[in-house]
Structure to design on (149 residues):
């Protein structure tokens, strides 16, 4: 990790590419997009907070992934308050997935949308009936960007 940081510093200080990158980064810092610094998101105050919801799945070998994926989009895509919905397959080459080969991701504007609209929705319960029998294990991870104050 230290070698990577030192290499980045050297490139920024000693090359034309580094100068261009430093200039570009300085311009980007003036925009209203979030910046990651020390694993914290800093904002200029114009961004809308989003609650990010990720579920990682370890499905049984015979799970009908195509049916699960199409059902997810059909059932969750119609729920008010669910945004940025996606179903994903792990493509990491590191083999550190601990069996979690698939995920779905969505965002909410509020905890209310997640807890009082999404979770009690009939389509959430239908999806549980479709997917439940095919799950070996799952993990849910939610986080705010920018962080909740």
């Amino acid at each position: 990790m230290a070698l990577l940081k030192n290499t980045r510093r050297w490139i920024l200080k000693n090359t034309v590419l580094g100068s261009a990158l430093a200039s570009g980064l300085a311009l980007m810092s003036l925009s209203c997009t979030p910046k990651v610094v020390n694993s914290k998101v800093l904002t200029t105050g114009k961004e809308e907070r989003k609650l990010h919801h990720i579920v990682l799945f370890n499905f049984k070998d015979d799970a009908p992934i195509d049916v699960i994926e199409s059902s997810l989009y059909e059932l969750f895509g119609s729920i008010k308050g669910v945004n940025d919905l996606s179903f994903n397959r792990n493509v990491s080459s590191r083999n550190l997935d601990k069996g979690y080969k698939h995920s779905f991701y969505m965002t909410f504007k509020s905890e209310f949308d997640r807890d009082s609209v999404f979770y009690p929705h009939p389509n959430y319960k239908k999806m549980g009936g479709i997917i439940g029998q095919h799950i070996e294990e799952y993990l849910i991870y939610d986080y705010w960007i920018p962080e909740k104050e």
In short: The CA atoms of residues 92 and 101 lie 9 Å apart.
